[in-house]
UniProtKB/TrEMBL annotation:
Name of the protein described by the UniProt record: Lytic murein transglycosylase B
Disordered: annotated segments: 44-79
Originating species: Corticibacter populi
Record-annotated active site: E192
Chain intervals with Low complexity compositional bias: 56-75
Superkingdom per UniProt: Bacteria
Domain called Transglycosylase SLT: residue spans: 103-399
Length: 423
């Protein structure tokens, strides 16, 4: 579920393999988009747009109040051709050897197999560069409208409608089982990997080994992130051994996220589903497994069936002091409606039946006025998948746009109105 978009222009069709020049052009374009779209986060405010950093979800428990920003999706990959095999005597290789030794006493892992696999890991210098903070970097201007334009595109909507029609029976059954709407699952998969068309081309073993034992020292949380990637490397080995996967063949994002939903290894192990019944959870090429795994992840992180994800809000009566108080908890649902009204925030009359806690979510628009919505527990659940409110809002709007297109094409009945939810 991790670092885990994560998504600029539509990818090259699967049957057209781009040459080196096109890959270099694609990388430059992707990274340019990534600076203002999806990326991998550490510990920024949840309302911040994605920035390049290290993954926190799906894969690790989320911090309850101050979420960061997204795991890099497959669209954020570097050129996978820059693998560099270090000498056996290098400190990096020595650390890998010691790491293999530390796992030797684990009865659930084959010591010889672990040693053999890790001895074939290659240091990827581009992965390290992509994780390295830019020197003298300034805060990126947050612009929700620009972010939205990059992700909620006609091409992504059209492809989403095709994916929905193709897997409609699975989406319907998964929604009935986990309570997560098909539109939300479509939104996540669409932003993460363009519905499985761009799942990444960096060898996962190399990405995780590089970041586990050569994480950029200039990063403000280098030690913490290196420990995180060491845990993910261990979980990757367990995942491959348990499911009969070839650790030398799996490819994904430069942070090690894999498959149609871009799960980190720990998330795959914890939340991966074998929905097609072939005996193992296979998120690389099984849309059914991916759809069910996304729903399972959101359900495990607090998704409430039948509840909306956000509401529009009227802030005309909120002064600057009240606004600061409402934004204080960031995107963690904290306020009942009575408290919101006390500080000048009003739900539209048709939505006042909602009895759950709410968070005021701010979406900045560069130098223009920001936009605001009230996020529910379900909005917060999406930010546990990828820790940015910009990401969550894009997921919801993409899914809504695809659903509208499906209804216009008469592939779906109109959505029923949301039933009043109990507190």
């Amino acid at each position: 579920m991790t670092l885990r978009p994560r998504p600029c222009p539509a990818p090259t069709p699967l049957l057209q393999r781009p040459g080196p020049a096109l890959r270099r052009w694609w990388l430059r374009l992707t990274l340019a988009c990534w600076a203002g779209a999806t990326g991998l986060g550490l510990q920024a405010q949840g309302s911040a747009p994605p920035q390049p950093a290290a993954p926190t979800a799906p894969g690790t428990p989320a911090t309850p109040v101050a979420p960061g920003v997204p795991v890099p999706s497959a669209s954020d990959n570097g050129d996978a051709t820059e693998d560099v095999q270090l000498t056996a005597a290098s400190p990096w290789q020595n650390q890998l050897h010691a790491f293999a030794g530390s796992l030797a006493g684990d009865p659930t892992l084959s010591a010889n197999w672990v040693e053999t696999v890790l001895s074939q890991a290659q240091h990827n210098s581009r992965v390290k560069r992509l994780m390295t903070p830019a020197p003298n970097a300034t805060t990126t201007v947050r612009d929700w409208q620009a972010y939205q334009r990059r992700l909620v595109t006609p091409a992504r909507i059209d492809a989403g409608a095709l994916f929905w029609r193709t897997h409609q029976s699975t989406l319907r059954a998964v929604e009935a089982q986990w309570g997560v709407p098909a539109s939300v699952i479509i939104g996540i998969i669409g932003i993460e990997t363009f519905y499985g068309q761009n799942t990444g081309n960096i060898r996962v073993l190399d990405a995780l080994a590089t970041l586990a034992f050569d994480f950029p020292a200039t990063h403000p949380r280098a030690s913490e992130r290196a420990r995180y990637f060491r845990r993910e490397l261990e979980q990757f080995l367990r995942l491959c051994q348990a499911n009969g996967l070839d650790p030398l063949a799996l490819r994904g994002s430069f942070a090690g996220a894999m498959g149609i939903p871009q799960f980190m290894p720990s998330s795959w192990l914890l939340y991966g589903q074998d929905y097609d019944g072939n005996g193992s959870s296979h998120l690389i090429d099984s849309p059914a497994d991916a759809i069910a795994s996304v729903a399972n992840y959101l359900s495990a992180h607090g998704w409430k069936s039948g509840k909306p994800a956000y509401f529009d809000v009227d802030l005309h009566e909120a002064d600057a002091t009240s606004l600061a108080i409402l934004l204080g908890p960031d995107i963690l649902p904290t306020f009942e409606q009575a408290a919101l009204r006390q500080f000048g925030a009003q739900l539209l009359p048709v939505e006042t039946h909602y009895g759950g806690l709410l968070a005021l979510v701010e979406l900045k628009n560069g130098t223009a006025a920001p936009q605001y919505v009230l996020g529910t527990e379900n909005f917060y659940a999406i930010t546990r998948y990828n820790q940015s409110s910009y990401y969550a809002m894009a997921v919801l709007q993409l899914g809504e746009a695809v659903e509208r297109k499906m209804q216009l094409q008469s592939a779906l009945p109109p959505s029923p109105p949301t039933a009043p939810a109990a507190p």
